[in-house]
């Protein structure tokens, strides 16, 4: 029978009876000893979960395969897959994990393979949080039909409140909306006080502490009035909900096993949620690598994984995966040496059976232009030897570090794709279509409505504000639900003269989507057809953008409802968009360019790391404390461990100062990154490029001849002043 907690129906499936024992030798045979230890820990008694387990999984050690086998092994041994919560950091990772579990468990279960299909609680922290918040909404004072703002829309709402409070009209420049939202997000995710965040991360904003506190309070109030949540709210509400003992107990009882991937990338909110779900650690497994913790700018803290065992009594069981299946021995030797210099870490030295005589290359070049030419020549040489461009990657600390290389690649007609820039939801046309759907889902969503109404010609901010005010006011006079009255409110509104022609089709559309008159996903097609003329009117490259909208329509068809589509797409958007990709690629092969942060979890045969100098790695903005320096060291480690066969760290000696044309060709000199000190140099093949003699340099014969004509220039210079 389902259990009822204060009006919330919580359906907890009956635990499956334990099946007869299986011969696990066959399907676990490919695991190494450490992987198998992690997989089999406590699995023999799935209905009596064991204590907490920490798996330290080094780069390339088969982490995903191990975690998938652990979940599958639990299912094979009788655990109910519907009572397993699997948390990952992207929806794609969750889908891939679910597929692997089904495949692995299916091979072991044979005719009963359907049992492995019930892993229904697999997703990101944010998507699972959104799902639970809707289920418990009535208990926590939240409207179940809330919508979720992406980060840009959240910053827009912050800016709207900022303007209403008069902060944008200060005599002295007040922090921009993006800065305000970054400060707010840092406070929420780290659990630090506003004063501490300002002191350590935004010192130039200290003078505005009181105004920022007022702004954030008003921002929270605005979100609540509009029934919208931002990304951070999904974790913040969940953590507060988990802090309520009765709700926490109910949530905990739903899951026998909780498994978390990439635990080193969690923030304090996420850690508190896990500890509330499994305070004694029973059934809790976390997998991660402290050496790859590189997301502190998002509020993640390496302390979560370093301190994890001590949260439990007895301490969590620890299993270390240190066999690397990706890189060659010399690459691992250099990578291990770099990370060994960190101030605090789990002891772990990766090893491999992949032998190679090729050391990682540490290449000194004159400047950024030479760096670009070196990379291009090496990439083309590898391609001539049979290595695809897609098997090669160029990694960099910041997106702008690849500017000179992109110019050289374009000049040499080498196709490339760059990761680490804009996201799909940042493009204007995608945001327009999603705004229509979000406003239909939640008519109180002022940011979405403000955007939609202004798509019509002749409608500006003042008119849009009047429309939104009337929608909410009419709702208050009726049922209190704007969706019941929004259509009639729009129909009764008198639009500006220029909007008259487009107003009736707009009202027809919104009345239909408010009332859900058209089933999903046909509703999306109706929105797309309404939007097409506005797309053509507002964008010269409408054809390219139209392809994005069609792609989004096909994606929409894979979701059961509008609410699910909006939630999932907002929390885990695709990477590509015509705004950033330009003309579609005509080549089937292309070079990968990526920031190091975006490269995490990837691997390539040939890897180039740009700007291996102090000021870039580590960033000159990341050396304020030992913790920051350690994270920069981990960034280099992550970059190095992406390489399977060849690794090039390029060290330009000279950087020109850009954006200051009046200074001419001013430049600065750089030194090799501090993370590769002199005593590590034997682990690298170090050389300067180009290796050929510089044209015009004097030959040995020329120097010998010049020695015969020895002159005393100093005497001539003194004589000038006689």
TrEMBL record:
InterPro entries: DExx_box_DNA_helicase_dom_sf, DNA_helicase_UvrD-like_C, DNA_helicase_UvrD/REP, P-loop_NTPase, UvrD-like_ATP-bd. Its EC number is 5.6.2.4. One of its GO terms (molecular function) is 3'-5' DNA helicase activity. Residues 36-328 form the UvrD-like helicase ATP-binding domain. It catalyses: Couples ATP hydrolysis with the unwinding of duplex DNA by translocating in the 3'-5' direction; ATP + H2O = ADP + phosphate + H(+). Belongs to the helicase family. UvrD subfamily. This is DNA 3'-5' helicase. GO terms for biological process: recombinational repair. Pfam families: UvrD-helicase, UvrD_C. It comes from the Bacteria. GO terms for cellular component: cytosol. It comes from Paraburkholderia lacunae. ATP binds at residues 57-64. Keywords: ATP-binding, Helicase, Hydrolase, Isomerase, Nucleotide-binding. Residues 329-601 form the UvrD-like helicase C-terminal domain.
């Amino acid at each position: 029978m389902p259990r009822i907690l204060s009006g919330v129906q919580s359906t907890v499936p009956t635990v499956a009876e334990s099946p007869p024992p299986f011969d696990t030798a066959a399907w676990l045979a490919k695991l190494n000893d450490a992987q198998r230890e992690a997989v089999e820990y406590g699995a023999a008694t799935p209905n009596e979960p064991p204590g907490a387990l920490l798996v330290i999984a080094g780069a390339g050690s088969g982490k995903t395969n191990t975690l998938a086998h652990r979940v599958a092994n639990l299912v094979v041994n009788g655990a109910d897959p519907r009572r397993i919560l699997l948390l990952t950091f992207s929806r794609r990772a969750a889908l891939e994990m679910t597929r692997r579990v089904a495949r692995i468990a299916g091979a072991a279960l044979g005719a009963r393979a359907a049992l492995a299909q019930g892993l229904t609680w697999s997703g990101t922290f944010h998507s699972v949080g959104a799902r639970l918040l809707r289920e418990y909404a009535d208990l926590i004072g939240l409207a179940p039909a809330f919508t979720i703002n992406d980060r840009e829309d959240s910053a827009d709402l912050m800016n709207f409140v900022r303007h209403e409070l008069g902060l944008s009209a200060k005599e002295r420049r007040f922090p921009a909306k993006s800065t305000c939202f970054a400060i707010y997000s840092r406070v929420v995710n780290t659990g630090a006080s506003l004063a501490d965040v300002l002191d350590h991360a935004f010192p130039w904003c200290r003078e505005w502490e009181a105004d920022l506190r007022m702004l954030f309070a008003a921002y929270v109030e605005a979100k609540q009035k509009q029934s919208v949540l931002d990304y951070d709210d999904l974790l913040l509400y969940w953590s507060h909900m988990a802090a309520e003992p009765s709700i926490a107990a109910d949530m905990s009882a739903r899951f026998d096993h909780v498994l978390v991937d990439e635990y080193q990338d969690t923030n304090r909110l996420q850690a508190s949620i896990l500890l509330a779900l499994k305070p004694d650690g029973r059934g809790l497994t976390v997998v991660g690598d402290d050496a790859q913790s590189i997301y502190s700018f998002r509020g993640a803290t390496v302390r979560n994984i370093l301190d994890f065992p001590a949260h439990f009594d007895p301490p969590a069981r620890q299993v270390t995966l240190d066999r690397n299946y990706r890189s060659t021995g010399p690459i691992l030797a250099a990578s291990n040496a770099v990370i060994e210099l960190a101030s605090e870490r789990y002891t772990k030295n990766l090893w491999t059976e992949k032998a190679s005589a090729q050391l990682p290359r540490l290449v000194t070049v004159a400047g950024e232009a030479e760096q670009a030419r070196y990379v291009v020549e090496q990439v083309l040489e590898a391609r001539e030897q049979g290595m695809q461009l897609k098997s090669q990657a160029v990694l960099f600390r910041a997106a702008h570090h690849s500017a000179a290389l992109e110019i050289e690649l374009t000049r040499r007609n080498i196709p490339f794709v760059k990761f680490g820039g804009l996201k799909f939801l940042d493009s204007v046309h995608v945001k327009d279509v999603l705004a229509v759907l979000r406003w239909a889902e939640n008519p109180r969503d002022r940011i979405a409505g403000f955007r939609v109404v202004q798509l019509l010609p002749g409608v500006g901010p003042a008119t849009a504000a009047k429309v939104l005010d009337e929608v909410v006011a009419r709702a208050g006079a009726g049922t209190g639900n704007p969706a019941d009255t929004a259509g009639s409110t729009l129909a009764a509104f008198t639009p500006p003269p220029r909007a008259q022609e487009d107003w009736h089709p707009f009202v027809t559309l919104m009345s239909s989507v408010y009332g859900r008159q058209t089933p999903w996903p046909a509703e999306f097609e109706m929105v797309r057809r309404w939007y097409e003329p506005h797309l053509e009117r507002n964008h010269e490259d409408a054809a390219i953008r139209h392809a994005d909208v069609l792609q989004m329509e096909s994606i929409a068809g894979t979701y059961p409802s509008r609410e699910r589509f909006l939630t999932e797409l907002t929390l885990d958007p695709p990477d590509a968009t015509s705004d950033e990709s330009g003309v579609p690629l005509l080549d089937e092969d292309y070079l990968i360019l990526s920031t190091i942060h975006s490269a995490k979890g990837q691997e390539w045969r040939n890897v180039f790391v740009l700007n291996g100098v102090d000021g870039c790695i580590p960033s000159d903005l990341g050396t304020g404390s030992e913790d920051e320096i350690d994270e920069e060291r981990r960034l280099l480690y992550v970059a190095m461990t992406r390489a399977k066969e060849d690794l090039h760290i390029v060290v330009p000696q000279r950087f020109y100062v850009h954006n200051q044309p009046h200074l001419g060709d001013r430049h600065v000199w750089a030194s090799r990154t501090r993370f590769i000190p002199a005593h590590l140099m034997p682990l690298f093949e170090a050389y300067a490029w180009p290796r050929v003699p510089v044209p015009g340099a004097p030959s040995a014969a020329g120097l010998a001849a010049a020695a015969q004509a020895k002159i005393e220039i100093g005497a001539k210079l003194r004589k000038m002043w006689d």
